Amino acid sequence: MARVIRQLDDEALEKPFNKQQFVRLLRYMKPYKKQVGFSLVLMLIAMACGLANPFLMSRAIGELRVQATENMPWILGGMVALAIIGALCTRYRIRWMDSAGRRALATLREDLFHHIQGMSFSFFDTRSAGKLLVRVINDVNSLNDLFTNGIVNVLIDCMTIVLLVIIMLLVNWQLTLIGMCILPLLLFILFKVKRIMRLRWQKVRVKNSTMNGYLHESLTGMRVTEAFVREDENADTFRAVNSDIRTSWMKAVTINNLFWPMLDLTGNIGTVLVYIFGVEFIKADPDFLANLLLIIWYLGRFWQPLNTLSNFYNSLLSATASMERIFEIMDTESDIQDKEGAEVLPPIEGRVTFENVTSLMTGKRRCSKTSPLILRPATPSLWWAPPAPVRPPS
Amino acid sequence: MDTIKRIWGLMKPYKKHMIGGLILQTVVIVATLIKPYITKFIVDDVIEGGLYDMLIPFCIMIIGLTLLTGGCNFLRSVLYERMSQSAMWDLRTGLYAHLQEMPYEFYDKHRVGEIMSRMTGDIDGVRHLIAFGLIHVYEQGLRFVGAFIFMMTMSWEITLLVLSLTPVIAIMAWLFNKKVRPLFREVREQNATLNTITQENLAGMHVVKAYAQEPFEEERFNKENQKLADMHLKVSWLWSSFVPFMDVLASLCTPIALLGGLLLTIHGNLDIGTMVGITGYIWMLVDPMRQLPNIINMVTNAVTSAEKLFYYVDFGASIKEPENAKTPVEFKGHVVFDHVNFSYGHQPVLKDICLEAKPGETIAVMGATGSGKSTLVTLLGRFYDIQSGSIKIDGIDVRQHALKPLRRQIGYVMQETFLFSDTIADNIRYGNPGGDMERVERSAKVAQATEFIDHMPQGYETVVGERGLGLSGGQKQRTAIARAVMIDPAILILDDSTSAVDMETEYLIQQELKEVLKDRTTFIIAHRISSVKNADQILVLDNGEIAERGTHKELMEKGGIYYQMVMDQMSSAVKVEKEVQ
To answer: What's the CA gap between A152 and A155, in Å, rounded?
Structure first.
């Protein structure tokens, strides 16, 4: 029978949003204020270009319908120009934002490393090197998304949604409201379903790391395993661990793959609603076709900013967990520090005296009060102590 | 090609999933292709033509088709995920079982990190190919052809116009891919470098601090950290030069189609519905072009990964179970080495070794580092095969023994003590998973481990090992001794296994062992004279050869290497004592 694998890495994957620490993190972006500002402007332009494209296209269809050709070159030229402007803006936005984010990240990592170097032995005794490594490498990496895309994207997405609604309302407020009927469904899918999706994927990751841990250890100890003929039991355990991965994966992927069909269905319901009610407008005015198509196309753009918003929400939760772990270390003061006005040590002779030494680790005094232990230079000393019972739990 | 065939072999047990998925995918694509046609009808016949009664049926068709595509797509993906996960399960557990049969030689040659990346990254690459490779190629290809045909029936002029643009997109995507791949690799490597530096720094923190090397360490770290940031920026630089413009090209297809529409309108033969319909097909022509490099990429990556994996599969276990394997009813532990020669690669390790150990005897092996002591004892469990001579246990050559029963009779306490991240009790039980608690405690007592285990926060249930509570060297060694005692071996091997235990405890362990393993054969490798002097026979190995043999008394009288070792150890002990005083 396969045994249960002990779950030994029990770090929180997510934490509720913490404003104070978020602000503290933002401070690392401060030197790049200008770049962020410019990027924001560029993104606004790119967004406007993106929104204008369907508008021009609908006008083109309107023109073609009545076989008017005089405005067409302008419209088509406009579409090409907008696409290029949009691309240029995106290009520079990516460059500026990424360089700001990456540099801020590098500074944060530098600060963290510097802080760790200043800690005393007692700090390292209570934390495994593996965990500290995760802080310096993985936890800092996981903030990247927040730095380079997250914050600016959120602003832009909110504005996109507002702008979309305004334009649609101006084009035709009745159809817009009808199309908006799908919004509750959309929100449900994007926030509720996505949340479940995310939790299930987290489970997959946990199972995967359990497998990795087990595999790593069993490879390291393979000589022992072979010597003690433990292969069959280990194979059973390994099979069980892998079955766990498969089960959790299938659970996650099932809901994951429902996501797009659900989104697609919602979009199509919106389209159909607009057609059905739009026909009444067409009956009154055949030229309304262009507006009808515009509303449908804009409606199709709605989910995108909402989707990034929901992604942002989710990445914020996991970033907060990383953030707290990083700051926890940065806030731990070293218990061994230079005294104020400490002097630089002159060349020493090497005479060491232990007097009334009490170790914090065990709390037991190791030297008798009356006779201090004195070590003279050039005398090799032999330290002998009975084997310590147990190291303190880390 | 051979590799692809073997990957195919992994998918074969799941043929039903595969074919079912292909059928479902076909339904999806046909339905996707019909949809823009309905839009065309809505615009042309309902809106322009005034057939308003037809609107509701068309709308129902749209919703119906959406449900159909969504449902089929979902089922298809679940089938393929199940197939890929199951194939991965087979591959990974199969490889694991195979790895467990690998000789020690394999682990001498391959580092754990390397094997790990095969078992995770490379297996995942193959999984990716199984889950997406085939179906993606099929989907994109069929959709491309389908969209092309449907568009041609609507307007061949516009279709050809749009089609002329797609190769440009494919070339750009290909160029981008070619340039970005080495950069991604660089980023990965730099990440690994930073990781290594940090790890070394943290692991060696005591040394760093003792030598006040923090500023140097920080400088080194900052340099690599900066380099990583720069590399990331290089990627986003390249990304920003390509991706937005690829998007431009893709979105240019629409104005170009409109331009075509404009020209056709001038000649007066274009329905507006056709124009709207065509805009719905354009992405189906463009998308495969953008995906093409990715797909090629995925296939080549998966094939390289698979090749590495199959290398492991083909790395035969050189130590094989013999045909007509013999297993004595009861092992007595009678060991005979008869002119044994063993070399590792081309390096001779043991030369012409002859020895006999009768049940109940203790054989001590001494010698300098690298003299072949550990190798000599690992040969007993047939972890390596010898080149000439023979090793017999209870009169049967080890190569004739059934492998697992043979190893079960040998209790190894290895030089490098390795404990698993598990409870102390389960670590002691490692070779005897069904063993009861009473026996665990008895074994711990023999190894003089009871006292420190009782002081543990959860006693025998305390989790130790890499991810648990850290034990001192001596504690680890005592646990490992208990682990060997637990299987009640006919032959016990103590390979330098009390080096971190103080002499007094060592003596107690030896006394207990003598008691428990009365009629068992014991091999002791040690450096301390106190550990070996009571042995029935002491062997002194020098460069793979037995230089001296005999009891403590005999060897002392002989005045050879052993005598010298004893003298050295005694004099240094005396010297230290004097100096301390």
So the answer is: 5
A223 and B104 in contact by Cβ < 8 A? yes
CATH superfamily membership of A19-330: ABC transporter type 1, transmembrane domain (1.20.1560.10)
Q: Measured between beta carbons, which residues in chain A are less than 8 angstroms from residue B502?
A: 386-387
Instruction: Indicate the burial class of B38 (C-beta count within 10 angstroms; 0-12, 13-18, 19 or more).
Output: middle
Residues of A in Cβ contact (< 8 Å) with B275: 61, 64
CATH classification for the domain delimited by B330-409+526-581, as one of 3.40.50.300, 3.90.550.10, 3.40.190.10, 2.115.10.20: 3.40.50.300
Q: Nearest-CA distance from B84 to chain A in Å?
A: 10
Contact A98 B431 (CB under 8 A): no
Check whether B27 has a pLDDT greater than 90: yes
Q: What pLDDT is recorded for position B24?
A: 95
Q: How far is the C-alpha of B286 from the C-alpha of B172, rounded, in Å?
A: 12
CA–CA separation, B531 vs B513, rounded Å?
Answer: 13
Reported ipTM: the value is: 0.84
Query: Measured between CA atoms, how close is A317 to chain B, in angstroms?
Result: 24
Q: Which of B55, B93, B474 sits opposite A276 (nearest CB)?
A: B55
- CA distance, residue A52 to nearest chain B CA (Å): 13
Classify residue B237 as exposed, middle or buried by CB count within 10 Å of its CB (0-12, 13-18, 19+): middle
CB within 8 Å: A90 and B191? no
Q: What pLDDT, in 10s, does the model give residues A169-225?
A: 998 888 889 888 888 888 888 888 888 988 898 888 888 888 888 888 888 889 999
> For residue B321, which amino acid is it?
E
Which chain B positions have a beta carbon within 8 Å of A45's beta carbon? none
> Which residues on B lie below 8 Å from A139 (Cβ)?
none
Of A99, A136, A227, the CB nearest to B233: A99
Domain boundaries, chain A: 19-330
In CATH, B2-314 is 1.10.510.10: no
The residue extents of the domains of chain B are 2-314, 330-409+526-581
Q: Parallel, antiparallel, or unpaired for β B388-393 and B335-344? A: antiparallel
**8 Å CB contact between B335 and B356:** yes
Q: Is pLDDT above 70 for A228?
A: yes
Q: What is the pLDDT of residues B498-542, one digit of tens each?
A: 888 888 888 888 888 888 878 889 999 988 888 888 889 999 998
Helix, strand, or coil (residue B356): strand
> pLDDT value at position A390?
40
Which of A114, A239, A382 is facing B580, going by the closest CB pair? A382
CA distance A342 to chain B (A): 16
Contacts of B29 (CB under 8 A, 6+ apart): B139, B142, B143, B146
d(CA B199, CA B60): 62
CB pairs under 8 A between A and B: 307
Q: Nearest CA to CA, how far is B341 from chain A (Å)?
A: 22
Strands B491-495 and B521-525: parallel
